[in-house]
Amino acid sequence: MLDYTKNFDPDMIGVINHAKRNPDRPALIMNNITITYQELDKQTNALANAFLQLGLNPGDRISVLMHNCPELLVAWSASGKIGVTPIAINYRFKKDELSYIINDSGSRVLMYGAEFEELIRAAEPELRGLSF
């Protein structure tokens, strides 16, 4: 297997490095929301620390159920900072599909948008080993 990491300068990639070099440069522009690299780094650090406080360790999995939004990027970036694997959950899934994917993946945490509250509550009795 090829090691693609040898093709990249580690000092030139990653949110933290972009935040150091270009803190005020936009990292994300979505609709009327602009998040700079510095803001993204702070948000991802805060979420990564929250994951650690929940007891997550490198190699653990989290499930993420959100529409395309800035918080989705924050969740994925925070996961990468602590070596946690995010599992993208299709927002069109029904209760049974949702619970199957979450349980089968071994996810320890479920992050979801408020608009999915009803779906999550319906699936909750079938979900195992999760922190919400």
Strand content: 15-25%
* Average pLDDT level: 90
Main beta-sheet annotation: 3 strands, parallel
Broad shape: globular
Count of folded domains: 1
Under CATH, the topology can be stated as Rossmann fold
What's a quick, concise take on this entry?
By secondary structure, the chain is an alpha/beta fold.
Your description of this structure?
By secondary structure, this protein is of the alpha/beta class. It has one domain (8-126): Rossmann fold, CATH 3.40.50. The protein has five helices and five strands, in the order H-E-E-H-E-H-E-H-E-H. A three-stranded parallel β-sheet has the order 4-3-5, with helices on one face. It has a two-stranded antiparallel ribbon with strand order 1-2. The chain is globular, with a radius of gyration of 16 Å.
Helix and strand arrangement:
Elements: H1 15-21, E1 26-30, E2 33-36, H2 37-53, E3 61-65, H3 70-82, E4 85-88, H4 95-105, E5 109-112, H5 117-123
Parallel strand pairs: 3-4, 3-5
Antiparallel strand pairs: 1-2
List key phrases describing it.
two-stranded antiparallel ribbon; 5 strands; Rossmann fold; alpha/beta; 5 helices
